[in-house]
Amino acid sequence: MRSAARLDVRLRVGFVVIAMILSVFGARLVQLQGFDPHAYAAAAAKENLVDVVLPAERGDILDRNGEPLADSVDGLMVIADPSLTSQHAAELATLLSKRLKIDYAATLAKLRKTSGAGSRFQYVARNVPATLATAAVQAAEKKGYDGLTTERDPIRDYPAGDVAANLVGFIGTDGPLAGMELAFNKHLAGKDGKATYEQDKAAGGTRIPLGKSSRVNPIDGQNLTLTIDRDLQWYSQRVLMKAVQDANAESGMAIVMDTKTGEVLTQADYPTYNAQDPGATPQKYRGVPSLSDPYEPGSVEKVLTLSALIDAGKVTDRTKLTVPGEYKSGDAYIHDWWAHGTVKLTLAGVIAQSSNIGTVLASNKFKKGQLRDYLVKFGLGQRTNVGLAGESAGLLPSTSVWNDADEDRIDFGQSLSVNALQEAAAVNTIADGGVRIDPSLVIGHATNDAGVEVGTDTATRRRVVSAAAAKQMSLMMERVVDPVAGLAPKAGVPGYRVAGKTGTAQRVSTKCHCYDGTFTVSFAGFAPADNPRFTIYVVVQNPRNGGGGGSVAGPVFSKIMGFALRRYGVPPTNTPASKLPTTW
After folding, report:
1. Is 299 annotated in the active site?
2. I want to staple 82 with a disulfide (CB 3.0 to 4.6 A). Which of 4, 113, 330, 461 is the partner?
3. Of 72, 83, 290, 299, which one is the catalytic site residue?
4. Domain shared by 407 and 500, yes or no
5. Which pLDDT score is estimated for 416?
């Protein structure tokens, strides 16, 4: 009887325990199916959701004829799901680092990231050529390694290599790093999209066809069309490079402007770099020195000084000057580039022979502050605002520190500084009949990342000197390339009338802030002289062959101008060249 009673008790206890366990399971089932089924289903689904960025295609940077200077080509990103790749991380990292040329340690860390943000999505490699990325993922799959996928990821391409590279800039691993790519990044970049989809972890990360998914399409960036002529830019860079190398110089710059529109057809800097492989060139050569590096322009400045003096009614192209061998200014003496006694030059002769003393003697007729006012109108001391970052405004002394001794030196291009595009635009003012037009690098209009709208549609014009003054200066400048009267016959272009001006200036050392014995040589001019189509300005820094503006920069001007005139089908005017008297 006792054993039967014990058995009965045990059975009763067993039934109670079983009932309690079933109650717990029942309650849980009611909770899952009745009270909050959606929350638990969402939580389960979330475990399998993957978010993928859909990159926008970056806008192209084109030359004036629609030729690409920077564009985007097909590429893929390689993506890892660490929850699937972690178990074979070392093997996968070895495979990917070899095939994609990426860092092994960084890749291994991404493949092993199984907790926290990014534990289901890691970029392994970006901007990979499509065939290379596909082959790498397929190789992993053949070895039985799951968790790698690919998505569209356009690659930035620079088909022109070094052509206009300083202007165009380039894209680095963290985004745009220089030039137009950096300055107009918002315009070019567009807006990335996003895709979310559900995948089956048990099936190696395969996307579930009827699973949860959403997509926000990317908005591609806008194109940017430059005023640059790719072929003319290429030719100019090659001619400039050879001149710098032949002169054993430090660097050079060459600018070609459309005289009537202010459009910059060429803006060449040398040394330069290949935008496809910027890392192969030192960083100091990846900027835009023709905008960022100010220098004293030397005798090209006489074009601005004396045309302003003519406009002010103080002199004419035939004004006679008695020029001594030296001229005292303040506590120092001014000399010409050649030793001479007293010579008799017309104003045209002062330009043709580039006489510093003659320029100062004539400029003494300016009223106080008058020259500075003209130079401001020419655009000196102000940025051209063509849209690129890092442009220097140069240095035009303020009225508070301007004195007579400074003005004497400013007359012939010392004691002030300019950037190359700034000076080219100033000389172009004479070519365009005395009207200055803002230089432009962008056709139409575009807003850079600094919020400044630039381009040919926004360019403004202002009269600086009269058409009559500009005409007289043009006739004077023709005498510079005359084989007998001038200093730069090598700047002439056979069959065409050419107006130009040489420049040689002492350079200021950034170390001692003093003249260090090196020079800037240059040549600026336009053609055809009596109906200008192009203005070209060439600058060479520190030629070590002893050459000057006429012998070093003049031939560069001649070659580029000849090429530009032929390329654009500009016929000779077939009118007689200037024969203004240079002596009396």
Report:
1. yes
2. 113
3. 299
4. yes
5. 97
